[in-house]
Design a protein that fits this description.
alpha/beta; D-Maltodextrin-Binding Protein, domain 2; 2 domains; five-stranded mixed β-sheet; 12 helices; 13 strands; Iontro_rcpt_C; ligand-gated monoatomic ion channel activity; Transporter substrate-binding domain-containing protein; Solute-binding_3/MltF_N
């Protein structure tokens, strides 16, 4: 009975999603992004910026063509991303959202655009070198992230924190002994603070980031997937990595571990 009700709820929610034609007619596509996770998404001096912001602007440019549509960026937190889609607050989510089986039952994902693993930020003086060193020690996680899912499943002690910057501050204030999130997020902090490190960089199996749309919004999803293939062919991701991501991480994030152009090459 519960499964039937869930299916009915998903079908009902999809009736309220904006179709591709409605988006084109309105001239606006609403995109959920982070505001505090550079270099992917941030909000500074009244402007949204970062890799995923540039990515969203490029998708919108190709969707609207000569009609001159625009992107309405909607700030979101990790735990809000799925809810924003299901309640039609946004048309797409482009906020380092990892593709998982559980999430795929609630939203539809594009083909992946980045590969990630879980990374763990720790205080350098604590000399934490492996995940076993964290057994019995509190680990900071954001609600709704793969880091939370992994450490809860493995029986570790977890402490929730609201966003990446607050998680970092809590770690520095000794509220916990580690902060776990996608490696491309936690790798940013040792660049600006030499008292922390990411010695656990590739925890668990590789995961993949995707663009999410409301369940059943196939026409919009098909356009996004076509766009991903075209952007890969023209070198958009490699250029973005070189221009935006690599400078931010000062060369500590190697593109061969994150980019998926070799996989996209099968589409010709």
């Amino acid at each position: 009975m519960k499964k039937i009700l869930l299916c009915l709820a998903l079908v009902a929610s999809s009736l309220f999603s904006n179709s591709l034609s409605e988006i084109k007619n309105s001239g606006v596509i609403r995109v959920g992004v982070f505001t505090d996770q550079p270099p992917f998404g941030s909000y500074k001096d009244g402007q949204f910026e970062g890799f995923e912001v540039d990515f969203a602007n490029r998708i919108a440019r190709d969707i609207f063509g000569q009609n001159g549509g625009k992107v309405e960026f909607v700030p979101t937190k990790a735990a809000e991303r799925i809810d924003f889609l299901q309640n039609n607050k946004v048309d797409i989510i482009l906020a380092t959202l990892t593709i998982t089986d559980e999430r795929s039952r609630m939203v539809d994902f594009s083909m992946p655009y980045f590969a990630v693993n879980i990374g763990v930020l720790t205080r350098k003086d604590d000399n934490i070198k492996s995940v076993s060193d964290l057994r019995g020690r509190p680990v900071l996680v954001e609600s709704g992230t793969t880091g939370e899912l992994f450490f809860k499943k493995e029986g570790y002690t977890v402490v929730e924190c609201p966003n990446s910057n607050e998680c970092y501050r809590m770690l520095k204030d000794n509220k916990a002994d580690a902060y776990a999130n996608d490696n491309l997020i936690v790798l940013a902090y040792p660049v600006i603070d030499r008292s922390v490190s990411v010695d656990i960089k590739n925890l668990g199996a590789s995961d993949f980031l995707g663009i999410a749309v409301q369940k059943g919004n196939k026409e919009l999803l098909d356009v996004i997937n076509k766009e991903l293939i075209n952007l890969s062919k023209e070198g958009f991701f490699r250029k973005s990595f070189k221009d935006t991501i690599d400078p931010f991480y000062k060369g500590t994030a190697e593109e061969k571990y994150f980019l998926l152009d070799d996989i996209y090459s099968i589409f010709g």
